[in-house]
Hints:
Layout: E1 5-8, H1 24-37, E2 41-43, H2 51-60, E3 69-75, H3 87-94, E4 99-105, H4 108-115, H5 119-135, E5 139-145, H6 147-153, H7 155-168, E6 172-177, H8 184-197, E7 203-207, H9 214-223, E8 228-231, H10 245-255, H11 269-280, E9 297-298, H12 301-309, E10 327-328, H13 335-344, H14 355-369, H15 378-389, E11 397-405, E12 416-424, E13 427-435, H16 438-450, E14 461-469, E15 480-487, E16 492-499, H17 502-521, H18 527-541
Parallel strand pairs: 1-2, 1-8, 2-3, 3-4, 4-5, 5-6, 6-7, 7-8, 9-10
Antiparallel strand pairs: 11-12, 12-13, 14-15, 15-16
Amino acid sequence: xxxxxxxxxxxxxxxxxxxxxxxxxxxxxxxxxxxxxxxxxxxxxxxxxxxxxxxxxxxxxxxxxxxxxxxxxxxxxxxxxxxxxxxxxxxxxxxxxxxxxxxxxxxxxxxxxxxxxxxxxxxxxxxxxxxxxxxxxxxxxxxxxxxxxxxxxxxxxxxxxxxxxxxxxxxxxxxxxxxxxxxxxxxxxxxxxxxxxxxxxxxxxxxxxxxxxxxxxxxxxxxxxxxxxxxxxxxxxxxxxxxxxxxxxxxxxxxxxxxxxxxxxxxxxxxxxxxxxxxxxxxxxxxxxxxxxxxxxxxxxxxxxxxxxxxxxxxxxxxxxxxxxxxxxxxxxxxxxxxxxxxxxxxxxxxxxxxxxxxxxxxxxxxxxxxxxxxxxxxxxxxxxxxxxxxxxxxxxxxxxxxxxxxxxxxxxxxxxxxxxxxxxxxxxxxxxxxxxxxxxxxxxxxxxxxxxxxxxxxxxxxxxxxxxxxxxxxxxxxxxxxxxxxxxxxxxxxxxxxxxxxxxxxxxxxxxxxxxxxxxxxxxxxxxxxxxxxxxxxxxxxx
Length: 544
């Protein structure tokens, strides 16, 4: 097993992605998450570029890192300036990090047209910069910027940049596909040559995803001898992003036998990637390899049947190894095996030949024909199961509701209002609320009415809301399907509603959402007792 050194550049190259803005607190939180995962290096930014990064490095020096080391990022010295007099290099030293990443030009086009210096001056800039930082006791990672374009245009000059860095004492030589336009077969020859030429210095790879091949390029580079890999955990970064480490690391460890993380850390890669994405305010793609919500989702009946007999028949790894889990999607093509697996979570004694399974399969086909879809609405499907098992009784009902909107809205007046009357047991409650939109107003009014009976609903909120027109041929009268995602701060669940009236479809999804969370609090087989208990408790609180 060969160790692969991982450098995560989420806080530097990742922060260059469109829409990514990290606060100082965000940067610290990302650092802690990456350290918890156990990457070797955290490339945290350029201390000479802005006051926020300067303050970050000051605060980071007091962090108790368990697994990772922090490095600062900067360029070679300016042309015509001695390394010891370069203010940017001085800021790298002032950051106080154990490591420093220095990028230098290895493509002659950039030397002549971007830096506008002689080829000799560029080589001197690389060598003198690294020698200066090594003399100051820093671990130096040299990023040969645009290496593969330089290798294609002028291979001897590209290699001369690496030779200058190596001669000056660079600890790592990283070959960068900065433009992201290379193919794996272009990478292999260059990496093999670098590994052969610099046998005493570990070679690294830094790939961008402009052709969608960053992951493939990084794997090809490792197979050709690279032992240092750079990327961002969730894949975001400049333009189309960087190598997605959350996909690369499992491939290297589980498929190729390399060791990238401390023992036992791979099982947390999904959780920590989602944490970093949440901090960055981006969504992890559901179809991201290994950790995405769809990575181990099975819909076709044949697939589900195969998985239940032998998981390796339709899964390339055990989901647990990357902190993910298996999902059986409920649909008309899912088959009875998938339905039976879901039912068993509620009633373990039910087999796929049980009449309930056949009834659910038929009901599912009928409902899907009407526009309902349960593959993204697990909570609604669980209610459907309980209804068929005779283990569901609503804890409340909406007796009447009214929603209206007015325009124009102002900063002081919400444009949507809702009124709702609910029945819980034998008691009624009426509540009203306003909101920016009609669904938000209805949601607020409904939860306000029910909180008298179920105080725990205070924690529940609507997290996401999606609407899809099922058949556009009917124009404004078309059926719409509403999917709602709710959360109590710890768990998320999804529900569905269908109607030609978008508010009614939303109401159906909202009711399922609340009923689902109440099922966790009360056993629906004893719903009447639960409601009676709630009402009695409420009367005692009111002194009745």
